[in-house]
Amino acid sequence: MTLEPFPTDWQRALAVVAHPDDMEYGASGAVAAWTQAGKEVAYLLVTRGEAGIDSLSPAECGPAREQEQRRACAAVGVEQCEFLDHPDGVIEYGLPLRRDIAAAIRRHRPDLVITGNFADRWATGGLNMADHVHTGRATLDAVRDAGNRWVFPGAGGEPWNGVRWLAVSGSPQATHGVDIGEVFDRAVASLSAHELYLRGLGGGGMADPEAFLRPHAEQAAQQLPGATLATTFELHDLGA
């Protein structure tokens, strides 16, 4: 399969994911390339990842992971990072989550919305988790919600129908790729910023940013003509 180059006819993006580190396991390389090209990218985190490290209580873990996420954002040129404070590990799909994401879309008024894989499985065949599934599905629905003034009228902000593209990172049905060869070191730095989280993994492939990201980027580049390292998205043109 050959991937299409990711479109460039947009200026503002909003990434909506469940946890700190979700963008860093692949998509942050694209963010680095985009911000380097002058595009604006903001992050919206549904949780603070407070249930993500077994050795730390949520009260300790949440603030620590927030700071790690902000450092990860800085590594790829992201200046705006917001947290919704839904509970980590037990995110529920429903109206409260859709409302909060729709309100953020109205505030940021993006051309592109990015979220993580919300299919039942990853491209490797492994099972996905409920937090990712519910966040991605709510993001998909919130894009439409944000444009309807009669849906969540109390959420604040004027309706926004300007989302042209919806991109799903880590999808098993990838359609487009972004060349990250020039910014791969920044992608590694962004994942490396999650120091406490990586240490809490206790070793293994996902605990080594370079060793995890490079093989995936090399494999993706084989499908994107002209790239040496790449990351992939399932892209939907909402204006088609």
From TrEMBL:
InterPro entries reported for this sequence: GlcNAc_PI_deacetylase-related, LmbE-like_dom_sf
Keyword check for Zinc: yes
Protein origin, superkingdom: Bacteria
Keywords for the protein's UniProt record, in alphabetical order: Zinc
The keyword Cell membrane belongs to this UniProt entry's keyword annotation: no
Pfam hit, one: PIG-L
Protein name: PIG-L family deacetylase
Organism whose genome encodes this protein: Pseudonocardia ailaonensis
Lineage: Bacteria, Bacillati, Actinomycetota, Actinomycetes, Pseudonocardiales
